[in-house]
Amino acid sequence: MPRIREAAVTGLGMLTPGGTRPEDTWAALCRGRGLARHLPYLAGLPVDFGCTVPALDAQAELGRPLARRSDRFTHLAIAAARRAVGDAGLAPDSWDPDRVAVVLGVGSNSLTTYDREFGLLDQDRPTFVSPMALPRSLPNMVAAEVAIDLGVRGPVFSVSSACASGATALGIARDLVSSGTCDIALAGGSESALSRMAVTCFAQMRALSRRAGDPAGACRPFDTRRDGLVLAEAAAVLVLERPDHAARRSARVRALLRGFGSTADAHHPVAPHPEGSGARRAVLAALADAVLTPSDIDHVNAHGTATPAGDAAEAQALLQVFDGDPPPVTASKSVLGHSMGAAAAVEAAVTVLTLEHQLIPPTANLIGQDPGRELDVVHSSPRPHPMATGLSSSFGFGGHNAVLVFTTP
Amino acid sequence: MLAELLTDEFGVEAEWVTPRATFHELKLDSLCLTELAVIVAQRTGLVVQGISPQSTLAEAVGHLADVTSAPP
Question: What is the mean pLDDT of residues A249-263?
Fold first, then answer.
């Protein structure tokens, strides 16, 4: 009998365009309306709308010294990690810091600081470039600052697999915990890639929806009229522990992370394999890791970015894996937007919430699907559905595929 | 200007900003002081050197005065 490597999810912290608490995000998902809006500071750019996290006053929550020495993607990560630790009933002053890990997914270094500092260099003023430019921007600093904030001294690092980063981080953290390398892992992802530079870069790749007249209706996963993704910012951190460790301290177990599959397309820098072969292999790998079969899966939280090629490849992969009859699907980006390195972690947390509520949130903006690639995508209203398992899939630029399998406790 | 920088930019409590306080006591390490020097240069064009975490605010103000009054 293959060994099942499970990690208990004992805490959640999420800051998304739906709000700064998991219940706020869940409520927004159940309402099923896109949260994108015009962002005044993007005026004049080819795309001027996206999804932002409301009501996070970094100075008030983190204190001015920490807020000023780090960029927003770090602010979000620290806030999410603190919430997750609190939700797990843990306290940094009572854990063994050498036995705690932090593994966070980040798609990019921070482009906010770089925008400003590159400008100074461009103006031939190199001596005015801030000494904090790198500490504020480097992708590892997201994990490092969380570790500093919470006093974590075990394995600490950021991982990057583009839009799959958060899932990759959770999978690696699951392995660290189940192998006994650490007892507790704070794992997830964080991203705030909504600077003028970041938005322009994505727009120039033709990756973004141009539906400026209807930002809330712009992100349309699996819809025949989809035209690209909508950028967002977010952070999500899950607390993972070995089940025996959680049981010893009588922790509430919200779900079990049981399977992780990671593959690469080896195909193209930004386009997915057209037949979804890498995605299909990642799903099968996650199922094998979980010692489950496709028929055991009750729900799929899809990557669903609303790009024409991406959704087509994902639908193809799901139809193949599930022999033409996949379980009910939701695509959270239709409401929350695409938060890049954080997205997979956000959707992992949403999958946990879905299993807890036994309710599948609707996918916004879906009217009709591609002929021959129709999935059972929940839309219009939340669907009650008995579920013991949920699969969350994420695929990133560069052909990274990461799939997670969660089960009820 | 220095007091305003410390409170507004670096979040130092106003009551801690006294002539005899050291930057170390105000929790400004060498990286922060490097940043402080860059901000001073941006706002005044003055290049400030020779300030360490063990310097007092009075010494730092003295350095600024020296640079301001130095012949071109």
Answer: 97
* Bridge-based pairing state of the strands A7-15 and A233-241: antiparallel
Ranges of residues in chain B whose predicted pLDDT is under 50: none
What is the DSSP annotation of A117-149? HHHHHHTT-GGGS-TTHHHHH-THHHHHHHHHH
In DSSP notation, A212-264 reads TT-GGGT--TTBTT---B-BBEEEEEEEEE-HHHHHHTTPPP-EEEEEEEEEE
B8 in reach of chain A (CB within 8 A): no
Query: Best interface-test mutation with B: which of A116, A127, A129, A141 has the largest number of B CBs within 10 A?
Result: A127
ipTM over 0.85: no
Q: How many CB pairs under 8 A join A and B?
A: 25
If you compute the radius of gyration of chain A from its CA atoms, what whole number of angstroms results? 20
- How far is A354 from A339, CA to CA, in rounded Å? 19
Query: pTM for this one?
Result: 0.93
Query: Which one-letter amino acid corresponds to residue B29?
Result: D
Chain A residues whose CB is inside 8 A of the B38 CB are 127-131
Report the phi/psi class of residue A289: left, alpha or beta, with left for phi > 0 and alpha for psi in -120 to 50: alpha
Are the C-beta atoms of residues A221 and A306 closer than 8 Å to each other?
yes
Confirm whether A273 is a catalytic residue: no
Q: Which among B27, B34, B38 has the least Cβ separation from residue A128?
A: B38
A347: Cα within 13 Å, side-chain hemisphere:
42
Inform me whether the pLDDT recorded for A116 exceeds 60: yes
Provide, as residue numbers in chain A, all residues whose Cβ is less than 8 Å from the Cβ of B34: 131
Under a CB-based contact definition with an 8 Å cutoff, are residues A224 and A246 in contact?
no
Does A126 contact B at CB distance below 8 Å? no
| Contacts of residue A185, Cβ cutoff 8 Å, sequence gap at least 6 | A7, A100, A101, A102, A103, A173, A174, A176, A177, A239, A240, A241
Q: What mean pLDDT, rounded, does chain A reach?
A: 95
Q: Least CB-CB distance to B41: which of A63, A127, A132? A: A127
Assess whether pLDDT exceeds 80 at residue A57: yes
Distance from CA of B29 to the nearest CA of A (A): 12
Q: Please work out, in degrees rounded to the nearest 5, the angle formed at the alpha carbon of residue B12 by the alpha carbons of B9 and B15.
A: 135
Output the pLDDT for position B71. 58
A219 catalytically annotated: no
